[in-house]
Specification:
This protein has ten helices and 18 strands. By secondary structure, it is of the alpha+beta class.
Length: about 325
């Protein structure tokens, strides 16, 4: 375990704020952040994501400044914003903070960070850097999950529904059903781990790093994630549309793990290849909800580096 980042006594905050995240007002979030930092005597640099700004660039700027000044790089937004800042912080060994502004907030909830902005600010200002586990796929960090196939497509198409109807849970559920009704393909994948290989035929492969999300859908392998040192995967057997919709309903009811058409397993590192040896094939992969193209093979692993999350000691995770 590398040493924890050293924070200055009045550690400055370098905040990347996404104006488009969540249901609340970005101006209200900005005002709350500024007021809390003034009251605590903490220097603040706030970067707002807008037109002409690339999130990865802002994340790297915040991390570089935090390292240089003994401060904390902070993500104020949803999963995509949190992922971008966390990815840069993980690689640099920088102290990382979260002000959750998303729809589900799985990462902050599993680490006991409250959603209301005033409460999450208090958690950030009084916390200390503590090591938490991250996952990686082809060296891209993820905190909640990474996936390919149907689930990645669902996430990509969900953004259009959110733009029209808002960032609410029922919108996410309706978008998933709409994607299923369009139809989907079945992948043939070879999965290599520990010197052994198995073949999976599945419409989607989901890899998770969040025990709360597994608990909510009723998959026991999430316990391995909670104990640390492992990720967990879910693969669905080939199904028709109606059967797939039924599985989505079972997941919403917290009973996915007991379904006969669901395979799940825990691991520390695996390699995924498309059948036929198409090693240069590019596929869409979603990492914490952000979809990007990656080359096969896909290598999923527990990150060898800890993410230094700033939170109060003894913070209790939320249960499903």
């Amino acid at each position: 375990m590398p040493p924890a980042p050293t924070l200055a006594p009045d550690a400055p905050l370098f905040v990347v704020l996404n104006r488009g995240s969540g249901r609340g007002s970005a101006d209200e979030a900005r005002q709350a952040i500024e007021a809390a930092c003034r009251a605590a005597g903490r220097p603040l640099t706030l970067r707002t994501i807008g037109r002409g700004h690339r999130l990865p660039d802002l994340a790297r700027e915040a991390v570089n400044a935090a390292l240089a000044q003994g401060g904390i790089a902070v993500a104020a937004g949803g999963d995509g914003t949190i992922n971008a800042v966390a990815h840069a912080a993980l690689r640099a060994g920088c102290a990382f903070g979260v002000l959750p502004q998303g729809t589900f907030n799985y990462f902050s909830r599993v680490h006991g960070i409250p959603a209301p902005i005033e409460e999450s600010l208090q958690s950030l200002l009084t916390g200390t850097p503590q090591p938490v586990q991250a996952g990686e796929v082809n060296d891209r960090a993820f905190l909640v999950n990474a996936s390919l196939g149907l689930y990645a497509r669902m996430l990509e198409e969900r953004e259009g529904f959110k733009a029209r109807f808002g960032r609410r849970r029922w919108v996410a559920f309706g978008a998933a059903l709409a994607t299923l009704l369009k139809g989907f393909r079945t992948w043939t994948l070879t999965v290599s781990a520990g010197g052994g290989t198995q073949v999976l035929r599945t419409p989607t492969l989901f890899v998770g790093n969040n025990a709360l999300q597994f608990e909510q859908v009723g998959v026991e392998e999430g316990q391995a994630v909670e104990e640390g040192g492992a990720l967990a995967a879910i693969a669905l057997e080939p199904l028709g549309r109606l059967a797939m919709i039924w599985l989505v309903l079972r997941a919403a009811a917290g009973k996915l793990g007991s379904a006969s058409k669901v395979r799940s397993f825990a691991f520390r590192e695996i390699e995924i290849q498309a059948a036929g040896g198409q090693s240069r094939r590019r596929v869409r992969v979603a990492t914490d909800g952000e979809v990007q193209w990656m080359d096969m093979p896909l290598r999923f692993r527990v990150s060898p580096r800890p993410l230094w999350l700033v939170k109060p000691r003894g913070a209790q995770p939320e249960r499903a």
